[in-house]
């Protein structure tokens, strides 16, 4: 993974979108670190939309409709929950600057959340950035079994419906590979990204 550290100009939402358009994204060393650095992985994680896989057990759960799935009704609550420590994730890279920047992107129509609700309680969700026909997944959280997984399924269904071409997961994990995520070399990712950005910005 290549990281570009050092002095950077003040990061604005506009600069952030430009960074995504050339394959960069920001991270922090921890939620308490006020600084950001740019990341440009040599190997990128993507989920090909035509190869997305849902297990039989998850499909059965989805048919039971255990959660109310909403979009963009609580973006800042989702990113706040993603930033919280959890038993399997004692620290995160989502600091205050990231939360502020992505909230601004959300107001601009370039950052979105998919949310799982149990009554009026937010129990899972994910958020990411949309640009052209690409969606860059950032983080997800779950406070109920399968809540974030169901949000991911809804995200893919929505992307297919709207005509998106690229779902960027940044990295792959065993969890994401179970849905069909693959690793692609940087050069191949750049081709996928360029193709997705030939599209006008799609509504989410």
Detailed description of the structure:
- By secondary structure, this protein is an alpha+beta fold.
- Helix content is 34%, strand content 27%.
- The strands form two sheets. A seven-stranded mixed sheet has the order 5-6-7-8-9-4-10, sandwiched between helices.
- The longest helix is centred in the C-terminal third of the chain and has 16 residues, at 147-162.
- The two termini are 30 Å apart.
N-to-C SSE string, H for helix and E for strand:
EHEEEHEHHEEEHEHEH
Largest sheet: 7 strands, mixed
Calculate Rg over CA atoms: 16 Å
Uncertain segments: none
Distance N to C terminus: 30 Å
Query: Shape, please?
Result: globular
- Total beta-strand segments: 10
Beta strand %: 25-35%
* Protein structure class: alpha+beta
Mean pLDDT: 93
State the share of residues found in helices, binned by percent.
25-40%
């Amino acid at each position: 993974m290549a990281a570009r550290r050092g002095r950077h100009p003040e990061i604005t939402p506009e600069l952030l979108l430009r960074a995504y358009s050339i394959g960069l994204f920001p991270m922090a060393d921890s939620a308490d670190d006020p600084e950001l650095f740019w990341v440009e992985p040599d190997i990128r994680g993507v989920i090909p939309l035509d190869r997305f896989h849902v297990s039989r057990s998850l499909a059965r759960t989805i048919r039971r409709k255990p959660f109310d799935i909403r979009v963009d009704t609580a973006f800042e609550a989702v990113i706040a929950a993603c930033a919280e420590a959890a038993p399997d994730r004692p620290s995160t890279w989502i600091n205050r600057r990231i939360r502020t920047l992505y909230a601004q992107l959300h107001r601009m129509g370039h950052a979105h959340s998919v949310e799982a609700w149990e009554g009026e309680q937010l129990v899972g969700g994910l958020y990411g950035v949309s640009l052209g026909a690409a969606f860059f997944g950032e983080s997800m959280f779950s406070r109920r079994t399968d809540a974030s997984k169901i949000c991911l399924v809804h995200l893919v269904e929505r992307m297919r419906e709207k005509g998106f071409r690229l779902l960027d997961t940044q990295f792959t994990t065993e969890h994401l590979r179970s849905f069909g995520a693959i690793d692609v070399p940087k050069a191949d990712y750049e081709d996928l990204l360029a193709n997705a950005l030939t599209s006008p910005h799609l509504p989410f």
